[in-house]
Write a structure and sequence with these properties.
Strand 3 (163-167) and strand 4 form a beta hairpin. Mean pLDDT is 87; it is low at 434-443. The chain contains twelve helices and 14 strands. Helix content is 50%, strand content 19%. The protein is an alpha+beta fold and 448 residues long. The chain has helices at 3-26, 29-57, 68-104, 123-129, 141-144, 150-153, 195-231, 237-268, 280-295, 316-332, 379-384, 391-401; strands at residues 108-112, 118-121, 163-167, 170-182, 186-193, 276-278, 301-306, 311-314, 339-347, 350-357, 405-411, 415-422, 427-428, 446-447. It has four domains: 5-98; 107-193, Beta-Lactamase (2-Layer Sandwich); 202-268, Helix Hairpins; 276-447, Histidine kinase-like ATPase, C-terminal domain (Heat Shock Protein 90, 2-Layer Sandwich), CATH 3.30.565. The structure holds adenosine-5'-diphosphate (ADP). Adenosine-5'-diphosphate binds at residues 325, 329-330, 333, 357, 359-362, 370, 375-378, 382, 387-393, 416. Adenosine-5'-diphosphate is lined by residues 325, 329-330, 333, 357, 359-362, 370, 375-378, 382, 387-393, 416. The chain crosses the membrane at residues 12-45. It is found in: Cell membrane. It comes from Thiohalophilus thiocyanatoxydans. Member of the two-component regulatory system PhoR/PhoB involved in the phosphate regulon genes expression. PhoR may function as a membrane-associated protein kinase that phosphorylates PhoB in response to environmental signals. Residues 423-448 are annotated as: Disordered.
């Protein structure tokens, strides 16, 4: 029991004992006790009224003066109030600082309530979404941004996926929106003007596509002439060798322009071309033969383990490009008498294409960057083997378009393994052909 309670109790007991004593002396015990109780009750009531008035009207003033337990109670309440006031002030300061900071951000910021209604926004959001204060407070953002792509934006798992749409007020402005959940079901939407970035990307894409396209015809003509000159038996030995080198380099340039055009095509549309059921095992046995020819005198041991009943729903040229690039790399980066193992198999997680070699391997620091365009571990070696540094970039894009992903595992001097994982919904088996399920991909055309 706190000290003041005991004090108060002792005081009450002492006054009762005193009243009893005086009452006994004057022969009026009941009256004396009643008198003391009335005095105590009156004093409690007066202090209660003072507390009530202070709380109601003068909270900002010091509390009314009082002694004993009442004094303690007044001071306690006063201290609590002071603390709450300080905390409020700090909160308001933090809130103001937050608003000033977000207002100064170059990106638009919109705070949403639990149900998706707009609560607050900054100056950039006013510009990008033409929001008006106070009319638009409480408006649902989903009603303002009516775009088919927005359906995916509101899905629970779409937090890290920014989406890009036209500004609802100006088609010339492209905005990217990103959702961030915080606190108690609160949402923050970050809006960025990406018009300029998109224009620059488009210019770069157009430039690469146009230049590759323009180079294609002269290179075809050049290669045609070189081919007939190389085959011409009247050409002397020295010149013949020069012509062969020229033909080889022209082929490299042709390959480069083809690769660049393919990448531009991938960037132009995210969806793959027309999909069919692809006879992958057949595609791989042809590829194995090509790899053997490409390896030439190095005489690699090439093993193919392919499930003959495992087909895939995909775009045949893109799949061929994926498989070819990985197998050609294995051949190019595996020294003579090395082994290359190609596997095509299925498990619960889907279908997997795996190329394993006993080649030169890749140091761990290079692995995350291998799928970047023109990234080569050893530029000279790669050039020597006819590589452009675009192969794995093509593989990555083609895999994404076919809803798959690429894994790379390698050790310097030991070899490398490249695995392409395709989701189970793309898996087909020949005996399912023409069965006619609801999936548009089941049955239909077959390619290899
Ligand atoms: P490139 O046309 O140069 O082969 P890629 O994009 O196909 O370009 O590959 C990028 C780089 O990754 C290559 O330059 C090479 O250094 C490395 N690489 C790819 N595949 C292998 C492999 N099987 N073994 C060792 N290194 C490889």
């Amino acid at each position: 029991m706190p000290y003041n309670w005991t004090n108060e109790l002792w005081r009450i007991l002492a006054s009762l004992v005193l009243a009893l004593l005086i009452g006994w002396m004057v022969g009026q015990i009941t009256l004396a006790l009643l008198l003391v109780i009335t005095v105590w009750f009156a004093s409690y009531f007066i202090r209660l009224v003072r507390l009530d008035r202070w709380l109601r009207f003068d909270r900002k003033q010091e509390p009314p003066h009082s002694t004993g337990l009442w004094g303690e109670t007044f001071t306690g309440i006063y201290r609590l109030q002071q603390r709450a006031r300080k905390r409020n002030k700090r909160l308001i300061k933090t809130l103001n600082r937050f608003r000033e900071t977000t207002a100064a951000l170059p990106d638009g910021v919109v705070l949403l309530r639990e149900e998706g209604e707009i609560e607050w926004w900054n100056a950039e959001a006013t510009r990008l979404l033409q929001l008006k204060y106070p009319q638009d407070v409480g408006l649902r953002l989903a009603n303002l941004l009516r775009h088919p792509a927005m359906a995916a934006f509101w899905q629970d798992d779409a937090q890290d996926e920014p989406i890009t749409i036209n500004s609802p007020y100006n088609d010339a402005i492209r905005i990217s929106l990103r959702r961030v959940e915080y606190g108690n079901n609160q949402t923050l939407v970050i809006i960025r003007d990406v018009t300029l970035i998109e224009q620059l990307q488009q210019m770069r894409r157009d430039f690469v596509a146009n230049i590759s396209h323009e180079l294609r015809t002269p290179l075809t003509v050049l290669s045609g002439y070189l081919e007939s000159l190389v085959e011409d038996e009247t050409v002397d030995q020295q010149l013949h060798h020069t012509l062969e080198v020229m033909q080889q380099q022209t082929r490299r340039m042709q390959q480069l322009t083809e690769d660049l055009m393919l990448l531009s095509r991938f960037e132009h549309s995210r969806e793959p071309g027309e999909k069919v059921v692809v006879n992958v095992p057949q595609m791989l046995s042809r590829l194995k033969e090509q790899a053997r020819i490409l390896g030439g005198e190095r005489e690699h041991t090439i093993l193919l383990e392919a499930d003959p009943t495992l087909y895939l729903w995909g775009e045949p040229r893109e799949l061929d490009s994926i498989f070819t690039n990985l197998v050609v790399n294995a051949v190019n980066y595996t020294p003579g008498s090395g082994a290359i193992r190609i596997r095509w198999h299925e498990d619960d997680t889907g279908a997997h294409f795996e190329v394993n070699d006993t080649g030169i391997g890749i140091a761990p620091r290079h692995i995350p960057r291998l799928t970047e365009r023109f990234y080569r571990v050893d530029v000279d070696r790669s050039r020597h083997s006819g590589g452009s540094g675009l192969g794995l970039a093509i593989v990555k894009h083609a895999m994404q378009r076919n809803r798959g992903s690429l894994r790379i595992d390698s050790e310097v001097g030991q070899g490398s393994t490249f695995i392409c994982d395709f989701p189970p919904e793309l898996v087909r088996h020949p005996d399912e052909q023409g069965r006619g399920t609801r999936d548009e991909g089941r049955g239909g055309k077959t390619a290899s």
